[in-house]
Structure of Indoleamine 2,3-dioxygenase 2-like:
Amino acid sequence: MGTEVKNTDTPLSLKKFHISEDYGFILPEPLTDLPAHYKPWMDIARNVTELISSHSLRLRIHDMPLLETHLLQTHRELRLAHLALSTMTMGYVWQEGERETVKVLPRNLSVPFCEVSRRLGLPPILIHADTVLANWKKRDPDGNLELLLTLPGGESVRGFFLVTLLVELAAVPGLKSILDVINGVHYNDVAMVTKALDVVSQAIDSMKQALKLMHEYVDPSIFYGILRIYLSGWKDNPSMPEGLVYEGVQEKPMEFSGGSAAQSSILHCFDELLGVQHKGDGGAFLRRMRDYMPPSHKHFIEDISCRPSLRNFVLQQADEHLTHTFEQCVARLVDFRSCHINIVTRYITIPASRAKQLRANKQGLVDELDAIRKAPTALEERGTGGSGIMVFLKTVRDETKDVYIPHCTNGNQVLPDAPMTAIQKAASELTIE
Ligand code: HEM
């Protein structure tokens, strides 16, 4: 029987890594409320948007009692607490835009936030695992989705987080098939690997279809001008060069990156499976993003990376169907990343250059001028409207192409639309309306 599976004698299992058969990395059925003791948190967290617009969130947080965290017992309680405390933290820091930030997070917020974060193994800042993975409920039996907590930006914010949730959901069949790919390689079973890789490939295509829903549900000027600052962190951020002091936790300021779907475990898994390697600063950033994931999800990615190389298996077998399926899977990942680059162009590059223009001319619609007053300028200052980000994303996309099999590349092939699997159909029925 084939090569030995490194690391463990038992097959890779989702359960061991707290990954759901139905929801993947998404937290199944997140709690919608905390025990009554934490009402002061939830009352503020549910009203962050209104409190920001009346400029009173900081005052409310100063008046908030310092609550002990020991009554939070289950994982789902801790996840909702992290979501609530991180939402309040982002609102507190960015309430007045990037020009009037704070240096200190008050102890009645920072102490419980750091305790909850430590228990979860997560950083004390808003992350993808909060806003997307643990921030949803079904509004009605038809499966319409709703957020638990939100940030300024109205319907576009709802669209942004829920579309990202649909991308995660579309990935689930592919995630499950990773196990079959690995087992197939282990047992030298070419047919099993080919079949499972085909499911991965279809899942990546479904993720791309879900990603495109961004255009329907999210307004670029609202994303850029209103929401984006609330996702910004205090690491390498010129408007908070010293980071943030978490009062009552440590005197030295701490630095953390902001929330981003680069913290989603999905693409990290597919990269490791296909053998895609990201080098240089971009690779270092992506590796650092793994510290912003639930630890068990990070361990799942690491486990995949320790398994015998799928690409070597494909090369060794020299099976035409398997090679074609592998190539197709890589092509779909490249395609997903190209689609993502288009989205970033529309939602960041173009609004950033418009904002720069408006700032220079001081002419424009009143609403538009107001929105850019609060929008972060850090991007504009880094050259032509986010060129740093674009270089990073294009490098990551091009590094994906490096795993194509020599002399056999399907890189330029026209990819047919993948048929929907049962779970993807279910995902498409969970609508946002
Ligand atoms: C309006 C929608 C979106 C915008 C504007 C956007 C923007 C960005 C930006 C600026 C980065 C660079 C890293 C950073 O600054 O954190 C990034 C990285 C990334 N984003 Fe998005 N993103 C969007 C939606 C999504 C969605 C729905 C996903 C799906 C899970 C996603 C997945 C990723 C991944 C995986 C990376 C890391 C780079 C890579 O692996 O290709 N993004 N995104």
Notes: Residues 5 and 117 are 33 Å apart (CA to CA). Confidence is low (pLDDT under 50) at residues 1-6, 381-386.
